[in-house]
Model the fold of this input.
Amino acid sequence: MSRRVSIFLTRVLSGLVIAMMVAVCAPAPQSVVVSPRITVDSAPDYTDLGRFVAFYKDRGLAGQELAIALWQRLSGVSTGLYHFNEIFDGADTDYALGNSRDALRNMNVHNHGFCGIHGPVLEGVFRAAGFEARSFSVPAWNHVATEVYYGGGWHYFDLDLRGTLLRPDGVVASAAEARADPSLWSDPRHAVEPFFPNVKDKSVGFRMFSAKPLDLQYHWSVGGWTMDYVLRPGESLTRWWQNRDGRWHHSPTYTGWMRELLEKPPRGIKPNNANFSIWGVGSSLLLYRPDLSEKTRDVELGAYEVRNLRTSATGLTPAEPGSGFVVFEVLSPYVIVPVMDDLDDPAGALNRDAATIMIDATTAVEGDISTDGGRTWVSLGTLPNKLRYDLTRFVRGRYHYFVRLGMQGEPGAAALRSLELRTWGQVAPISLPRLAKGRNVLRLGVNDPRGRPTRLLPVLPQLGDPEDIERHGVRIVGDYQPRQPSQRLRGRAVVPVEAGPGQVIERLSVGGMFRAHHLKRAPLTANKIEIATALGGPFRTIYDATGTVPDWNQHWHYSMDTDVILPEPVRKVWVRYTGDPSLNSIRIYAHCRDPRPVNTGMVRVTHDYSIGDERILKSVEVPAGGGSYTVDCREVPTNHALKLETPHSVR
Done:
């Protein structure tokens, strides 16, 4: 072999080695990140009830030990829910249908409630742990609490009043025993903390329990809601433990002492028993600033839909002469809330900045907004250039909306150069992973609770609103009385559920509110839910109440949710509800697979905290598929904020 050939081959081989090294060492291209969450090893994960209870089960707790640990966590002054008032999170304002009794939502979004919420919420947590559980009311006390079944009997736990009763043998007493034995209240041989800190005269509990028979409630806990969301390239989610600027999810029912408490500094929702919690409600900011130029894949990965627009050196421009549009979806894990400047007119213009949009364009850009999944649109008119346009009146109190941006002109001449979408939410501070003194081991997890990279599609037709039912394409057959919350539909409702552009449905959480028969007639309750992949069927039963409602049930209302994994992903499914004796509300959360790449690249995590007078920002980059990192704190820190952000997807 000649020297010249040898040198040539050496250079070729060296080039190949270098190319291989670059291929191996180069970071994966940035994609969207599905449902990123940060957890700390020393505390449970609040973002999913299964993971929340697993924290205790993995430590070997079962039976009474497990029940007490869960109740104590949710009764803790820094880890639990507190008493404030009702939570009307949605369109319904009926006491039974409208109040949020979803444990996961209240643990992540609201942080508060009242006894009529806390009783079912604790029931839901117990059910997630594998227990049979129920809430019950104490009519003489105007109070609601919880019973859980283990060891062959029922046991009474009170989340609202922060207490439980121990029999002389150390076993938690039942509600029946609580109304039969006064010594359990006033002279207990054993007690577990907390022990009714808000009941100064402990004997009052016995008097109230024994004054009238208790009312037993079947399945008042609600499920289906999820913390799933997506961070796109160029997007960040920041959460603060403390309220920012006076933002909260306000209800017109907050009057009198509640109004006074709201206005008391720090302004906003806070416990009316100050010793029950160190928290009020925190804030979140979902900030989306995609790069619209051809230098990145941000639009390709982040837009919901694009028609006759393409990226260019200057931004989004028509692909062909004429008009085009782009749709961006905003799906917040937290209820969208404004700065509450005016409590006298909660829907008024003074309450602002729940969400804003700002553009920079070389031509007129027409905006539209949809809050019903793109079924109907409201025109925003021509958007002002380089000024924030307030979307509060459309989106406050919601979790989901679409923005459509349309323009027309010649390719390259008309361009949307930049976009900013800001969406503020309300956070339950207990759900955020807190740094503590010493070494903190934290983890980035991704994907939905089943470990799948699905995108959430909420389908929530309001059964009390015939126009909304029509918008959702729901077909109703039977006796339909939308203004009767306790008996809206005796008959059938078929709900179409269709995935977004290019997506397919993998699984669904399907549920609703139903009417039930009472006591001896309870097993005659025959409400049903079925599912099919074609409008004409065949329909497969996924829930049948026949014979399942217990004969101790004493109320007309109950809730039920069930998970369905489809044999094969499909574009569209139909869910058929049968109300017998009645269907009163519908909720469907579809989980869809998108063909675009997910969970590659990185996530930047920033902890904002103080130690003494020193403010510290600690940032780490974690692989977007998940990973762990540590933060060392030499003293007890004060946690301020936690930020997750994804960089632009550079080509």
